Structure formats: structure tokens, C-alpha cells
Amino acid sequence: MSDWTELWFVFQQVTTTTDHIQRYGLFADAGGNPSTDGVYLERLAADTNWFTVTRTGSVQTRKDTGQAYTTAWRKLHIKKNGTSLEFYLDGTLVTTHTNAENIPLGTVGLTPGAQITPTTTTARSFTLDFFRLKGVVTR
Prior knowledge:
This protein is mainly β. The chain has a single domain, classed as Jelly Rolls, CATH 2.60.120. Helices cover about 0% and strands about 60% of the residues.
């Protein structure tokens, strides 16, 4: 968790139907639904807006971005700022999470990823155009 400083995704939803879950960010278990630890943007099947999530040890803080779930292209930027994480959507700061809000710390290994999980038997998809992870190497 300590080696990255910024994360970007540029993505688009193919549909706005409510029969799937989507997540973009960093996950301890990219196949988990949800991962035990993570930092990500999320839209659950019942949500009409995007939410930001910080999760450690299966305890999470989830905040509404106020940004609707649509088929428009979206730009996600997650940035470390001291002991806080800032979440930007399309260049606008939408939420900030602090260390008191379940940010994974220390040696928790997180992997960047994008998840889509159908809640019915209908397959769903998204378009991922760009991904970037900026890190720091310390020795």
C-alpha cells in the first residue's frame, strides 16, 4: 500500500442496467466480491451514483460521489495526499478518505484492477481505455 501515489482509469459503461456491480481501483483480492482490503470506485446493482470505498479487514467506509452512473466516458483519479486519499471523477474532487476511514496501511499488498460482476445470468461489459499507476521506490 505504501508504494503507490496516484492511480488513473479512463472507462465507459456499455449499459446502465442495474444487474451488475462495477469496481475500479486497488484490491487485495481482485477476484473478491468485494475484496477484503481495497481502495476503489464502486457501483453496486442498486446504486444510481458512483461511490468511493476504502476497505481494510472487511470493514469499509463508503461515500457517495454525487456522480450519476451513466454510459459517458469517466476519468477516475485516486491520489494520496499525506494520510488521506482524494478521489476525483472527471477532474472534480468528489470525496476524501482519511486514515480513520479504513484505508489499508503498511504492508497490505494491493493490485490494480477493474471488476464487473453480473447479478443475473446476463453477461455485462465495460470499455477500459487507459490505466496508469504512479509509484515511489524507496530503498
